[in-house]
Write a structure and sequence with these properties.
By secondary structure, this protein is α/β, with parallel strands linked by helices. The protein has two domains: 243 residues, Type I PLP-dependent aspartate aminotransferase-like (Major domain) (Aspartate Aminotransferase, domain 2, 3-Layer(aba) Sandwich); 127 residues, Alpha-Beta Complex (Aspartate Aminotransferase, domain 1). The chain is 40% helix and 13% strand. The strands form three sheets. The protein has an eight-stranded mixed beta sheet with strand order 1-9-8-5-4-2-3-13, with helices on both faces. It has a four-stranded antiparallel beta sheet with strand order 10-11-14-12. α1 runs antiparallel to α3.
Amino acid sequence: MIEEKIQDEIRNFFSTKSQHEQSKTTKFQIPLAVPSYNHEEVIDALDSMLSTRVTMGEKVKSFEEQFSKYIGCKNGIMVNSGSSANLLALSILSNPATENSIKRDSQIITPAVTWATTVSPIINVGCTPMFVDVDLDTLCVNTEEIKEAINSKTACLLPVHLMGNPCNMQEISKISKEHDLYLVEDACEAPGATFDDKKVGSFGDLGTFSFFMSHHISTIEGGMIVTNNEELAEMGKTLRTFGWTRDLKNKNKINSEYPEIDPRFLFVNTGYNFRPTEIQGAFGRNQLPKLESLIKIRRENALFWNDELSKYSEYLILPKRNLENHVYFGYAITIKKNSPFSREKLTKFLESKGIETRPIMSGNYIEQPAAKLINYQKHGELNNAKLIMRNSFFIGNHHKVTQKERELVVNSFNDFFKQL
């Protein structure tokens, strides 16, 4: 059959494709990211395309069930991006049909060092971001800052497991319960990370994940919400797709209340079109079984670099957190104050050696021009966020980094410090 021939050709293509060919779109020997998919994902996606059943269906549902089980939650809601996952999560909590919903003009506490699409959804649902500082050693939100920032308008905590490093969820969960606040975990960069042997994303009312091409596992574009709350999950399924009832468990009961309306087009709420495709579902369900092995490589890389670069601790802050917890979206480095060189000098040198670099996400968000367009609050001076904006960066840490690439990084740092 022609389908079998096509599948064989796809397998042959991936089996003969070298690492260099897979990353030949970049000039760097160590790019920031290399897509993690192989022939399995392409064949499963092609199956959907050839069948013409490409809109959200059974493959998406399969991935939702597998991923939510992996995280340790009862419900998974796949969407078309991690950004959409954040917007949908806050839309669930702020929807007037949600019991004890977040009211407009409420404040949502989130770290100043984050990605832009953690902040935008707060604005989109009519709330105000309250920015707090982060710790330099983990890049994660400082829990003492959270406590001090809470006021009568605070409705929700939105910590970010930045760069794959888990926040202190024991303390953050305690704070949210003591103050009766919603808790949404932005785990977009941290699938598989744990705190106290529990997967991040499973501590809060809702957890969000991203499967963009540069992430640990990829569905090309894609995201996921997980939750143990059945009511919030049902609300999410409604809002994900126009506000209709098609995906709801109790749709028959709702439909019976409106017999004059075609049940295929019964809208019980407002909503979005955040649906993923079966192609994304196919990628996801084939990627997930590979996640733990991909994380293992990242941890081994980071352990090697931490050991070899610790001799430069006078100048550099290297990633900190138990290796069994951290999943290393990238390998982050902060140059200490008063070091005799700038971030730009070091990153330019590394890139000349074939090691791609980039700043830490959006940096200190309130220094971005976009912040001038929004109403926000901040607690304290955000001194660590300011330093990260100027002195921090990361290099690629992924499954295509072998011993050769590990040593290239170490040798490049050695060469840099020799010339000081």
